[in-house]
Amino acid sequence: MMKLSYNKRLAACLLLVTALVLALCLWTGWYVRGVSADLQQGLAGMDRLITEAKWDEAGRQFTANYAAWQQKRGVWQGLMNHQDVVNIDLAFISLGAYLEQEKAEDTLNQLAVVRYYLDLMSENERLNWHNFF
Prior knowledge:
Blueprint: H1 6-43, H2 46-51, H3 55-79, H4 82-101, H5 104-124, H6 129-132
């Protein structure tokens, strides 16, 4: 059996840890982009419903999407900055409040904010040089 020197064992361990961290980064980016795309798809028809003043239907769609967010929220908290998760929470809560008040312009603006935060998280978790420096 061949014995490896201490330096070779250390280099092999560091290489393994680096590969595991890189794999975790890639999985995190893939997961966040997938959840963000699912949530964006759930919000897709709300613009039309709000402009057509179909508030009940928009409310049901929002409730389903918010429930999906709440299911994924815990994992997101473990993967990214907590303030970013809080921002998405607040945006969803504000969107729900505007839907209840049936204010079309404010609701559409808040819907855009929710979409912005979801896009921002998807972009921030992407593995690229900009995120390293």
